[in-house]
Amino acid sequence: MKQVTAQVANLPQEALRLLSTPLVEFGGITISLIGLIAFVIGIIVVRLLARLLGRVIVRAFLAQGRDRRSAAAVARLGEVLAFTIGIVIVLESAGIELSAFIAMFAALGVGIGFGLQNLVNNLASGVIVLFEQPVRPGDFIELDGTSGEIRRIGLRATTLQTVDGQEVIIPNSQLLELRLINWTLSNTVVRLRLHFGVAYGSDPDRVRNIVLDVASRHAAVLDEPEATVQFEAFGSSSLDFVLLFWVAEPSQRQVVLSDLRYALDRAFHEHGIEIPFPQRDLHLRSVDPE
């Protein structure tokens, strides 16, 4: 009976010894089961605290009347910094010396440097994007022929949702290297252009009045600034005009342009104004058989 009692009493010590037994040893780093468990728990706690810090930053910015999109960008950067510092603290608390990691990575530094050039470039670009804010979550942009709304800005890549509902992952370096059009950076009101032509012999003043009337009837076309029609050129087979008008929602510009084309086609038919098509003169000449 005494022997059984002694074995039971020694169970906590045996369990502690088992948990403390090294599982992996390399480069001066010793990893035990209890250290691994503590590390995982520490990572979870650090992640939760980083998210909490991000929410606090957003609330603080909003309380000062700042823009929500700017607050989200700063909060994201704060989360990353807090998470990085937390990881360092967890590693030190787990008894893992960072000098061992530094020595190990120094030995592999050259190979890793060449292999991760794009990753480092994207990370550095992500930091620049978060600080300079050429784009922010919620902005409608056009990049390399793809347009859509910024959904999320990460340190490595940015998520863009197109008007078709597709989510495009864009490396952050492309946001700085490629030609980027931000339709909503400082103002959501933008001017659109609708080019059209009418047949020679049409009254330009009458055409202008019809087009302005059609534009004024569309709900998305703003009254201020007011729309205008400019006479562009005497084309090869048509009088060329352009309708300049303003909208408050850039993401709907293709829909508005399509609606106006439908309406202009109906209006021109109703008023007897012809929309021409390219014409060519063909000259036939007889050839002497000899």
Detailed description of the structure:
By secondary structure, the chain is of the alpha+beta class. Helices cover 50% and strands 21% of the residues. It is built from ten helices and ten strands. Strands 6-5-4-3-7 form a five-stranded antiparallel sheet. It has a three-stranded antiparallel sheet with strand order 8-10-9, covered by helices on one side. A two-stranded antiparallel ribbon has the order 1-2. A hairpin with a 4-residue loop joins strand 5 and strand 6. It is elongated and about 110 Å long.
Please describe the topology of this protein.
Elements: H1 2-9, H2 11-20, E1 22-26, E2 29-32, H3 33-63, H4 68-93, H5 98-107, H6 109-115, H7 117-132, E3 140-143, E4 146-153, E5 157-162, E6 167-171, H8 172-177, E7 180-182, E8 190-198, H9 204-217, E9 228-234, E10 239-247, H10 253-270
Antiparallel strand pairs: 1-2, 3-4, 3-7, 4-5, 5-6, 8-10, 9-10
Beta-strand residue percentage = 15-25%
In which order are the strands of the major sheet placed? 6-5-4-3-7
* Mean pLDDT score: 79
Distance between the termini: 132 Å
Low-confidence stretches: 1-11
Tally of contiguous helical segments: 10
C-alpha geometry: elongated
- Binned, the helix content reads 40-55%
